[in-house]
Amino acid sequence: MKRNTQQLNNLCIQVRRDILRMVHAVNSGHPGGSLGCTEFLVALYQNLMDRKEGFDMNGIGEDLFFLSNGHISPVFYSVLARSGYFPVSELATFRHINSRLQGHPTTHEGLPGVRVASGSLGQGLSVAIGAAQAKKLNNDNHLIYALLGDGELQEGQNWEAIMYASAKKVDNLIATIDLNGKQIDGTTDDVLNMGSVRAKFEAFDWHVIDIKEGNNIEAIIAGMTEAKSKTGNGKPVCVLLHTEMGNGVDYMMYSHAWHGKAPNDEQLATALTQNYCEGESDY
Hints:
The protein starts with a helix and ends in a 9-residue tail after the last helix. By secondary structure, it is an alpha/beta fold. 47% of the residues are buried. It is built from ten helices and seven strands. The radius of gyration is 18 Å and the shape is globular.
């Protein structure tokens, strides 16, 4: 059963709390992008994707998601756990030795919900395209979703994949770009200005949809529903998701400083105070 908007927003608060507590506990991880993509992943797993109960690597008869920017694993792990893939209590093992919840998702640990190791940036879209083509070969009409960072687009392999997807009419694919304009060394414009990402994808013959309010649940659902309506028409679909890095924590927003830095005890307490709702259930 799909959750309503209030339930989704409450879950976003819970996921943000998970993210903050996970990275604080080990003084390691990437809270900024994780917080920025919280609403998107919550909406995707709780409302938009057609998912089966349980987990198998083949994913036949259901939509599949691939996280390319694997450093935002805290939000991915939290959403997977809160969606029933593994116990929420396991979030407490994040980045521990011998944990299934490594800093970047891995497959050899056998973690339900994870189908590809990611974190070496620039590779996730290629994997997603392969999965999308496998769906077509298997006469499986379900969709493939992928999430990439905007700084990640500076990796050249992405553009080979983008060219290939349109040339081969991979039209069961929705690739979402987290457009927060920031990466670990500064703004994307300062590190390597890419110009208009929309114009580039359009030049490669993709459908392009903008979600201007990328931290608004209703806007995400509306935009992604439109994206789904564009599939099956001979072109892959790109969603430009305009988010704010560190969303929901005032001192983390509007800066790249929290891309890969954990809050201290006082900062954690402040952030948790800013993210409180009735009925929360921390791990």
